[in-house]
Design brief:
The complex is a heterodimer of chains A (about 170) and B (about 375). With about 170 residues, chain A is mostly helical. Chain A contains 11 helices and no strands. The chains are: A mainly alpha (about 170), B alpha+beta (about 375).
């Protein structure tokens, strides 16, 4: 990540901020999608996150931690959407896997992931897809690192169970 | 999981970064946000969402002002002295549990004893001795490195905030375990606030719910001290916590239903947390029915009264001789004196939200 870009954004340069956040849109969307299934809700959460990050970026002292900091704001905003609109409205619309990935094998894995409890799914996504360390995930999700490690292990185990179950039924 | 399958999963999950298509509505709203930021910067309006350094007051600052006001009012009424300054631990609480009542439980006047290394840190055990660590000599430095300024035990989690001393600012600190009444417990999550807020301090959290602490207990936090590749002798900080003041217990409760009986035991509530065990005793007929239909029972704490996002943490699940047992702890509104326990019939491997509610029982949280 371009530290200079983050510093320019921190100094209230809107062009730098826009460039910085546009580079994170894929990550933000994929992470929000683990909590919210309605694209409208995801869009609102992402928009709120952009505005909040702009408002609060000057409070971030260590540029190295900015991505985890941003992700925590995003996740909080996703839960805020659930609070506003209710879990059901958000969860009723299941993701259209085909639109999300055209790769059949990956679609199968997405389907397996979606069967996991969100608390496991979120940790797996942040660890594998977003490349955060367990300590960073603990900070993002506001929980002890030990809990992250436990959820990572249980999530993997449960994913394996689902995988074996699926293979056995084939 | 077998290694081969695990690596396959790793590969696929890591490869999942490709092929993401962001919906138009998400892109559009993001662009609206960027436009608003640009527009307000150009207009340099008073209503700006902050453009230019230090303009306006952020929502965080306003929030703290509100909390401080709440503390002052509480102190005037109750005669209790609360910290009329920013409480670092309050930022650590999940949003739903961050009520003024919960913040009142943060202890700020703590008698801390600092000693040298008494317990062997976990990291030493495999790789080092008392004097050597990874082949390097451990350097003594007896000057305190951390001042513990805020602590809270909410009935499940222990939170500690410490500010680095002038000496401590030279070092990187860490704690992987702690000791409760001199018995090792952990792991501990350590956060270096410098990476988040630029402050010279640390927070430490650990889940102690399995200990069922309901009385005074002693906490010893062994701090590992690093400076680059150098390792310094540990310092241990000890203090006493009181769980009693913040804990209310309720009597065990039983709910009989057709085919199963629910036993709710070990009910403990604090200002912001409730925890209890749920045990289902099934008749033989009910068990067979569940087996035949490939379904199971699960519990959900429901209702608007329980704070969102903290609903129904389940730790532990077992089926044995007709029993299903779950241990639940959840965030709680401080004014609440009862919650609803829903029992759901869920298809094995299915979504809990697709389950059918087959029983609803009110759990009383007060004696």
């Amino acid at each position: 990540m371009d530290v200079e870009l983050i510093r320019r954004a921190k100094s209230r340069d809107p062009d730098a901020f826009t460039e910085l956040m546009r580079s994170q849109m894929n990550s933000m969307y994929k992470t929000a999608r683990q909590i919210l299934q309605s694209d409208e809700d995801i869009a609102d959460a992402v928009q709120d996150t952009l505005l909040t990050c702009w408002q609060k970026l000057d409070q971030l002292r260590d540029e190295r931690a900015w991505r985890a900091w941003m992700m925590r704001i995003l996740i909080n905003n996703c839960y805020e959407q659930i609070r506003k609109h209710g879990l059901e409205s958000s969860m009723d619309i299941l993701p259209e896997a085909a639109a999300y990935s055209e790769n059949y094998e990956q679609t199968e894995w997405q389907d397996l992931l979606w069967r996991l409890d969100e608390k496991y799914r979120m940790v797996l996504i942040l660890y594998y897809l977003e490349g955060f360390r367990t300590g960073e995930i603990a900070q993002i999700l506001g929980m002890p690192e030990a809990t992250v490690r436990t959820r990572l292990k249980r999530g993997r185990d449960r994913l394996a169970e689902e995988y074996h179950g699926g293979k056995a039924n084939e | 999981m077998e290694e081969k399958q695990m690596s396959e999963m790793d590969k696929i999950m890591q490869g999942w970064n490709n092929d993401t298509v962001i919906p138009e509505v998400v892109t559009r709203k993001a662009e609206e946000a960027f436009s608003r930021i640009h527009r307000e910067c150009e207009e340099n309006s008073e209503k700006s969402i902050i453009c230019g350094a230090n303009k306006g007051t952020s929502t965080v600052h306003r929030r703290w002002k509100r909390y401080v006001a709440a503390f002052i009012a509480a102190a005037a009424v109750g005669g209790t002295v609360f910290a009329a300054t920013r409480l670092h631990l309050a930022e650590l609480f999940p949003k739903e549990m961050n009520s003024p009542q919960a913040q009142e439980q943060i202890m700020t006047d703590i008698a801390v004893a600092v000693t040298g290394q008494v317990h062997m840190p976990e990291a030493y055990r495999e790789e080092g001795t008392e004097d050597m660590f990874w082949g390097r000599k451990v350097i003594p430095d007896a000057s305190p490195v951390l001042s513990i300024e805020e602590v809270q035990y909410d009935g499940t989690t222990l939170y500690i905030y410490g500010a680095s001393t002038e000496n401590g600012r030279k070092y990187e600190l860490n704690a992987d375990r702690l000791y409760i009444n001199d018995k090792e417990y952990g792991p501990v999550g350590t956060t270096n606030l410098n990476e988040w807020t630029g402050e010279d301090g640390y927070t430490f959290t650990t889940d102690l719910s399995a200990l069922h602490l309901e009385d005074d207990f002693t906490v010893t936090l062994p701090l590992s001290i690093y400076q680059g590749e150098e390792r310094f002798q540990n310092q241990e900080l000890s203090f006493t916590m009181s769980a009693k003041a913040n804990i209310q217990k309720a009597e065990d409760q039983t709910f009989a239903h057709d085919g199963f009986t629910i036993y709710v035991t070990n009910i403990v509530r604090t200002t912001n947390v409730v925890r209890f065990s749920v045990r289902y005793q099934l008749t033989e007929e009910e068990r067979e029915k569940l087996d035949e239909t490939n379904t199971g029972l699960t519990s959900v704490i429901s209702g608007d009264e329980v704070e969102d996002g903290q609903n129904g943490f389940t730790s532990g699940y077992e089926v044995e001789d007709g029993y299903v047992e779950e241990h639940i702890h959840a965030g709680l509104s401080p004014d609440l004196d009862q919650i609803t326990l829903q029992t759901l019939l869920v298809e094995n491997g299915g979504y809990v939200r697709d389950g059918k509610v087959i029983a609803e029982d009110m759990i009383r949280l007060n004696e």
